[in-house]
Amino acid sequence: MATAVVRYTAAAVTDRGRKRPSNEDAFGFSVEAGVYVVCDGMGGAAAGEIASSLAVDEVLRLLKTRKQEKETELPAAAESAVTAANEAIFSRAQRNQKLNGMGTTLVAMTTQDQHVWILNIGDSRCYQMRKGKLEQLTQDHSLVEEQVRLGRMTPREALHSPLKNVITRALGTQPHVRPDVFKLEAEPGDIFLLCSDGLTRELPDNIIEALLNCDLPLDAMAARLVEAAKKAGGHDNITSMLVRAEA
């Protein structure tokens, strides 16, 4: 019989990169509550920072109280938290003209024993590293990635497209938005990577996989990914969060 997952450990690193004057990424996690969040804000002035921080704070606040939730209720609780975060950002922007149009991507993970749910909006991603192999779990809500999925653009064309920054779904820019939700079963030794596109724009999947194939503490691995992305150009803010399942 397979060994069940009974606990998780986590670490995260964020950096403004080498080109941006400030960091509009935000992250937060609670191992005790089994919730992990990474957001990448957008908007003029400090609006992106406000949107991403609001989203992280709201999702964490609402899901930290859900210990008593049954497994069947967790996906609905997680979706409700994301909906509440969307409403908080949208209403804040409506009240302040300077924040009009602000929004954020979101990738979140919530766990209960071996059960894992991934939620995402935008182009921040979640990957799973299992037995040395990296797999992307989320799909980007971006114009170029949707063109790739439809066969209208190659991955190479997408990488160099002037439209690569256009996302088709964001948190806080509309009154209502729904995340994609994925469920899977974790195994001991699995590592989940939640990250902003500042990491994945600079590092292809095979490089990320190679950097994660090492025997280092999670915080050192997260820092290693961020430093590699900075060396590769560091054109955007970079956030790397690693969550490991353990027996």
Can you give a write-up of this model?
This protein is of the alpha+beta class. The protein has one domain: 4-Layer Sandwich (Phosphatase 2c, domain 1). The chain has seven helices and ten strands. The protein has helices spanning 47-63, 74-95, 143-149, 155-160, 197-200, 205-212, 218-231, and strands spanning 7-15, 25-30, 35-42, 103-112, 115-121, 125-130, 133-136, 180-185, 191-195, 238-246. The protein has a five-stranded antiparallel sheet with strand order 1-10-9-6-7. The chain has a five-stranded antiparallel sheet with strand order 2-3-4-5-8, with helices on one face. α1 (47-63) packs antiparallel against α2. The chain is globular and about 55 Å long. The model has no long low-confidence stretch (mean pLDDT 93).
Sequence-ordered SSE layout with sheet pairings:
Elements: E1 7-15, E2 25-30, E3 35-42, H1 47-63, H2 74-95, E4 103-112, E5 115-121, E6 125-130, E7 133-136, H3 143-149, H4 155-160, E8 180-185, E9 191-195, H5 197-200, H6 205-212, H7 218-231, E10 238-246
Antiparallel strand pairs: 1-10, 2-3, 3-4, 4-5, 5-8, 6-7, 6-9, 9-10
User: What does the average pLDDT come to?
Assistant: 93
* SSE run: EEEHHEEEEHHEEHHHE
In the CATH hierarchy, what is the superfamily? PPM-type phosphatase domain
What CATH architecture label applies?
Answer: 4-Layer Sandwich
Task: Please summarize the sheet with the most strands.
Answer: 5 strands, antiparallel
